[in-house]
Design goal:
Elements: H1 2-35, H2 41-45, H3 49-68, H4 75-112, H5 116-147, H6 150-161, H7 163-173, H8 175-190, E1 198-201, E2 204-211, E3 215-220, E4 225-229, H9 232-235, E5 239-240, E6 248-256, H10 262-274, E7 279-291, E8 296-304, H11 307-328, H12 355-361
Antiparallel strand pairs: 1-2, 1-5, 2-3, 3-4, 6-8, 7-8
Helix pairs in contact: 1-3, 3-4, 4-5, 5-8, 10-11
Length: about 375
Amino acid sequence: MENVLRPLIVVGGSVVLTLLIGWAVDRVLRKADARHEENSLWGLLRRARVPFQLVLFAALLRGSYDQAKLLVEHRVGVGRTLTLILIGSAAWLVIRIATAIVETSYTRYANAHRDPARVRRVRTQVTLIQRVVSAIVTVVAVASMLLTFPAMRAAGASLLASAGILGIVAGVAAQSTLANLFAGLQIAFGDMVRLGDTVVVDGEWGTVEEITLTFLTVRTWDERRITMPVSYFTSKPFENWSRGTPQMTGIVFFHLDHSAPVEAMREQLRDILRECPAWDGRDYGLAVTDSTPNTMQVRALVTAKDADDIWTVRVTVRERMIRWLTDVHPYALPRVNTAEAILPLGHPRRPAHDDTDAAVTAPTTPHTPDPPRTGPGRG
């Protein structure tokens, strides 16, 4: 009977004690979260309930397993398994606690500062710090698990003896990986690019959606994802439209006939922008910037508060201006000059033929008709 009750008491007691302590800690965190609603730390710490209970159970069972006298012939293997579970769950718990602290710090900073650029910068740094901490804890946990095996301890001593050679080999083999790792840290703390920034990379316009220690993801306007190594952003030029202030200036080009009414187009541009909610009202303008033998280039300049609005303003101006020219001034649209130009209403129309020019170009020799065709075979 003792051989049956002893294991049940040890294992069952560990389970019951783990559940009671976990429930008590969760209740305390819940009350603290309700008492301090402005601080999200306590609510985030509740996410660590499962790893906390796992650590508690593994520690209790590891300490009292010898008293259970269960599977005595496998005592070493069971003890090592519980140690591995304890190390893994402890690493999981540390990562959850670190994540809760980092997210709470970021939330406080975001609530205290209204500058979107600074908030995105801190968010990028916090995300990478969180991932660095998770990577370090994971590596330490795996190393600790390996060191629980006696064979791995001997291997570790021999590895330390040849650490210099292995370091050189690993550095050469992982050169690109290390370059991306340091590039990720440089991006995070150098404020080169941040989460949510609008960038143009290799001719693709999009928003930075994810930054890790090795790669960066850009979400394009058509919902595609471009993934590239972070070392690209430290070695090649790229456009960052969110750098500094988010305000932007956009340009719309029109290729028109030389007879296009530029002054009327300026007034129409002003009317279009006044009816466009995306225009921020800072500036606008219209000027002829180039000319060719067949057309002239007209540039409309508009402003908006960010990249999304500048796109809306540009397409609105382009669409409504072309429609207005088509309806009111069709002669201003580019065309191949093979026919007479369409003049505006009320404009004096030039005669088709000028008498003076006709007199100059008329033939001076009278026309002699061909002689009549006679003879055989002609009729």
